[in-house]
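Appendix B. Extra example for self-study. Work through it before the problem class; the solution is given directly after the inputs so you can check yourself.
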Amino acid sequence: MRYRLPQPYQELPHTADLGLSTRGRSPEETLARLVLALAGLLSGGGGVAPGGEEVLLVREGADLARTAVGVLREVLFRFAARREIPWGCEVRSLAAGRAELVVGFGPYRPELHGEGRDVKAVTYHRARFEPDGGSWIAEVYLDV
Amino acid sequence: MERPSSPVKLRRLSDWLWEIPREGAMRVPGRIYADGPLAPDDPALRQVANVAHLPGIVKCSLAMPDIHWGYGFPIGGVAAVDLDRGAVSPGGVGYDINCGVRVVTTGVEAAEVRARRHEVTAELYRSIPTGVGSSDAIPRLSGEEMDAVLAEGASWALARGYAAASDLAHCEEEGRLPGADPSAVSDRARERGADQLGTLGSGNHFLEVDEVAEVYDAAAAETFGLRTGAAALQIHSGSRGLGYQVCDEALAELASSLGRYGPDYAALPDPQLACAPIDSAAGRRYLGAMQAAANFAWANRQVMTGLAVRALRRSLALSERELAAEVLYDVCHNVAKVEEHRVDGERRALLVHRKGATRAFGPGDPRVPEAYREVGQPVLIPGDMGRYSYVLAGTALAMDETFGSSCHGAGRLLSRHQALRAARGRSIHRELLDRGIEVISRGKKTLGEEMSEAYKDVARVVGVVERAGLSRLVARLTPIGVIKG
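Solution. Structure tokens for the complete assembly:
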């Protein structure tokens, strides 16, 4: 797995909620970091024991930003329904409307992840995924 | 800092009401109730203007005095659309479908609870799962049971011993929306909700034991069963992961297909306003699923009520008769419902979206429970965990001005980041204890994020709706013991 927890990300303020921002040298790196930023938020910074890997194929969104939202929606569902948190991520391909990733998931453990966020949903609100200077930037807001 | 939005034009209509005049593709003006001058570049005001673009919206895009920046709709937003020509917007309901509040009165003195404050709060905390992914308050629902919850709402809990018959009569819509379509609720939403019935969740959700600290309207308070010095329960929660998933899926579907409904839909200024004609397959599907999720939320609050009442009885060693717990009322503040209202002198069937706004029907309305009809509908407005909450009553003026709507809470003042910074180096738990309030929360950050200073003073918020004549004050509740996620 090319990218593993922890990866650099920034939290963005929103009155009652918050956003995530990641940067990368390529769109693939930026998206992988975005997935692991969500994992960092869900785990509250606690380590995630590596478990099985899953290929996620997302066909959603008219642009990269909405496709990234679609990817995070998939990751969040696995957390919400199955209590699984990503520990690693590799983006095989990414284009507007289509993303293929390999994501490694590990179990949520209350004793390690007690400071994690209970994220309700990933929103389209001010979603960005675009070149910025010499790199790429992604921003996505979450309902918490 | 949050990024400001392009400023809106504002016109003062009265001491408490501002208007965003109609411009561009806005179909109606915006109207905002507030207790002071507004900042034109507040992004929540831009959202009020954006909502005014919704197809079929009538009269105005409204915001209550607890308005703050949301997703698509502002929190505190109200939009009514024509039932035949209008659009239903999942963003106008929000992710936590039928998030709401209920107050349960008791025959016990608050002093008795205060004397055993820790035991009472700890027993509530043990009995009702809170926090991230909280689950297993009751056995996981089978597919058939889930269908029954989605169709029956609070009455599902009655049949299983978590409610008294009178509880249902004291819920908005009697705790069940009949248009629910369980088959429209996806497998994923069911999976998220199957083990979450009877759980509180996290964020601003809470369950607390309060004291009826002050009565402003003795006759209304007596009708509502509120007595100064008595203890009451207050619950704030919603449809948990099931509702979030219903909204999430509907938004994803609609955001990608707006163009199919014509240029008015394609030109909406924010993808979070994604919507569909009410009378379209997608619109009907969302409405069926949303109403089913609303029923799940009512069942959730009802099961928590049953669990909390048992916890109170155990911790105070009281019989059912001695505790004398009765649901005062249960309101939803994130929902869209078909209602009849008078618009320009004519009765019209509308779909009223309330996103962080409370129904507040006035005296004499047949949709208000018979026991309260002379007074008006109870309007339950929670504050922050360190100060107070209010019980109000709906008014005839609200029926004319706001489609029978009022505020829903204090409204956030600080972002979560700002609140955590302000809490650094302090023990919020100790500060609250010093003020006679015991709080037990699962997450360490929760107390900082949810501290009083993070919220507007709810007294100022209800002061606006009272001065504006949208609701009238009945009583104030103050917290004794609070549990949070």
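Self-check: The mean pLDDT of chain A is 95. If your reasoning did not lead you there, revisit section 3.
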